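Retry 2 of 3 after timeout on previous attempt. Resubmitting C-alpha cells to design endpoint.
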C-alpha cells in the first residue's frame, strides 16, 4: 500500500489555488483545494490531511483565525502559512500560534515541496510516538528478525520470506501452534523498508469480541460507555510500519468487514467518528487454522481470505525438521544462561539426544518451555535428562522404537493429548494452561468443548 502525503491547499485566489493544487499533485502528493477558512475546516471534519498550505489574507475567516481553529483539532495537520507580507511580524505570529513554517509569495515550487515533506515527516513521527504510548507491546528477549535453523526446509522458507520482505504485499503465515510464526513475521519486518519503525503485534484470539473494533481502529471520546478519552488504535500505531495479526482466524465477522475495507482503500474510521482516516500499514497475518475450511464453513469471509492470502508461507512442525532441534537447544540455553546469570549452564549429551528424539506436539514453544523449566529449577550447572519435562522426554523408554502393535496417533489426537496434559500440569487452571500453550483462553475453551472436557 503506497502512501501519498495528503495536502489541503487553502487560498481565496482561484487562479493561485488551482496552480498550487495542480503543481502539488504533479509532485506526487494527494492535493485537495479549499477556497476559504470555513471550507478548509469543513474538509478537516470529514477527512484526514497531513499538511495544510494556508493563505494568511482571506475574507471571512482569516488565515490566522483558521490556524487557531485547526490547532484545536486532534490530529491536526501541520500548517504552512503563505503570505505576501515580506515583514517578519506576520510570520512570527503564525509560528507562535503553532504553524510549522511560513513561505513568502510567490514561493518557488521546489521550496514548497521541501517544506511539505519536512512537515509531513514531523507529523508522522509525532503521531507514531503518540500511538505507541497507547499500545501495550510485550517486550521480547528474542533477537529481532533472526531465525534459528539448520534444516533445508527452513532454509527454503527463509529465502521465500526474505523475498516477500522486499514487497508491501500482505502475507499470511500458516502452521501449527508453537512453530514460530511470530518469529517469521519479525524476520520479514526486519528486512522490509519499514524496519526503522517497530512492528505492532496483536493476538486476535486474546481480544474480547466487544473490544475488537476499538482496539483495531480506535475510538472517540464518548463513543460508548467508559470511553472517557480519545484512543488511537492498532492501525494508527502501525502507520508506516507492519501490523502482525496473530490468530487472525479468531477475528469476529464485523471486524473482518472493516479490516477488508482498510486493506482495499487504506481508510478507516474510529468508533464513534464519521471522519475517514488513512494509514500506510503492511499486514502480516498468521493462523494455525485452515482458513480455506473456515471460509467453506462460513466462519471466515472469503474476500478477506483472498485479500490476505497474497503471499502464503507455511512453517513446518518441529517433528518434520529435527535437524533444527540442536540449533534451537543451543539458542535457548544461551538465552537462559544470560537470563538466570549462569554462564556455565549446560545440558547433558543424553538430554540433548532425548530432545532430538521427541516428537514435540507443541513444537518450538514446547521445546523452549521445557528448557526454561529445567534451567529455572536446576540446582547444578549440568541439566540431566531425567530433569526434563514432559515425562515423555525424560523417560528412557521414549528413545526405543514404538510398539508396532499400537496404531500411530493422528495430529488431532496428539494435540488433544498435549493440551490435556498441559492443563493437568497447570492444576486445571485454564488461563495458565492457555499461556503455556501460547493460545488464547477463548481458543482453549473452544478446543475443550470439542473434546467434551
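Retry 2 succeeded. Sequence:
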Amino acid at each position: 500500500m503506497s502512501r501519498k502525503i495528503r495536502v489541503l491547499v487553502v487560498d481565496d485566489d482561484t487562479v493561485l489555488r488551482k496552480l498550487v493544487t495542480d503543481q502539488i499533485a504533479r509532485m506526487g502528493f494527494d492535493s485537495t483545494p479549499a477556497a476559504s477558512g470555513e471550507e478548509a475546516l469543513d474538509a478537516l471534519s470529514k477527512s484526514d490531511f497531513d499538511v495544510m498550505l494556508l493563505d494568511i489574507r482571506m475574507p471571512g475567516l482569516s488565515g490566522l483565525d483558521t490556524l487557531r481553529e485547526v490547532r484545536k483539532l486532534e490530529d491536526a495537520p501541520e500548517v504552512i502559512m503563505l503570505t505576501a507580507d515580506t515583514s517578519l511580524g506576520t510570520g512570527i505570529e503564525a509560528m507562535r500560534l503553532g504553524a510549522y513554517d511560513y513561505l513568502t509569495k510567490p514561493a518557488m515550487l521546489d521550496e514548497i515541496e521541501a517544506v511539505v515533506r519536512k512537515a509531513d515527516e514531523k507529523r508522522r513521527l509525532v503521531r507514531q510516538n503518540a500511538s505507541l504510548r497507547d499500545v501495550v507491546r510485550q517486550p521480547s528477549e528474542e533477537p529481532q528478525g533472526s531465525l534459528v535453523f539448520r534444516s533445508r526446509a527452513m532454509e527454503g522458507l527463509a529465502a521465500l520470506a526474505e523475498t516477500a520482505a522486499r514487497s508491501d504485499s500482505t502475507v499470511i503465515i500458516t502452521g501449527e501452534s508453537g512453530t514460530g510464526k511470530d518469529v517469521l513475521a519479525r524476520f520479514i519486518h526486519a528486512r522490509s523498508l519499514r524496519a526503522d519503525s517497530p512492528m505492532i503485534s496483536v493476538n486476535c484470539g486474546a481480544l474480547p469480541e466487544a473490544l475488537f473494533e476499538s482496539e483495531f481502529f480506535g475510538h472517540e471520546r464518548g463513543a460508548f460507555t467508559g470511553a472517557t478519552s480519545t484512543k488511537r488504535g492498532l492501525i494508527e500505531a502501525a502507520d508506516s510500519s507492519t501490523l502482525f495479526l496473530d490468530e487472525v482466524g479468531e477475528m469476529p465477522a464485523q471486524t473482518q468487514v472493516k479490516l477488508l475495507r482498510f486493506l482495499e482503500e487504506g481508510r478507516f474510521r474510529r468508533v464513534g467518528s464519521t471522519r475517514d482516516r488513512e494509514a500506510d500499514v503492511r499486514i502480516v497475518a498468521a493462523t494455525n487454522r485452515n482458513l480455506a475450511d473456515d471460509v467453506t464453513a462460513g466462519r471466515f469471509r472469503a474476500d478477506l481470505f483472498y485479500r490476505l492470502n497474497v503471499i502464503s508461507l507455511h512453517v513446518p512442525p518441529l517433528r518434520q525438521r529435527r535437524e533444527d532441534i540442536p540449533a534451537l537447544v543451543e539458542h535457548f540455553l544461551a538465552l537462559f544462561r544470560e537470563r538466570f546469570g549462569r554462564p556455565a549452564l549446560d545440558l547433558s549429551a543424553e538430554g540433548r539426544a532425548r530432545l532430538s528424539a521427541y516428537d514435540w506436539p507443541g513444537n518450538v514453544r514446547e521445546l523452549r518451555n521445557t528448557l526454561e523449566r529445567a534451567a529455572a529449577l536446576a540446582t547444578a550447572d549440568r541439566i540431566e535428562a531425567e530433569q526434563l519435562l514432559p515425562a515423555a522426554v525424560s523417560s528412557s523408554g521414549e528413545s526405543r522404537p514404538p510398539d508396532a502393535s499400537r496404531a500411530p496417533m493422528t495430529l488431532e489426537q496428539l494435540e488433544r493429548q498435549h493440551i490435556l496434559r498441559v492443563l493437568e500440569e497447570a492444576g486445571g487452571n485454564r488461563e495458565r494452561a492457555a499461556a503455556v500453550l501460547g493460545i488464547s483462553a477463548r481458543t482453549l475453551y473452544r478446543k475443550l468443548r470439542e473434546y467434551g472436557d
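Attempt log closed. The radius of gyration is 28 Å.
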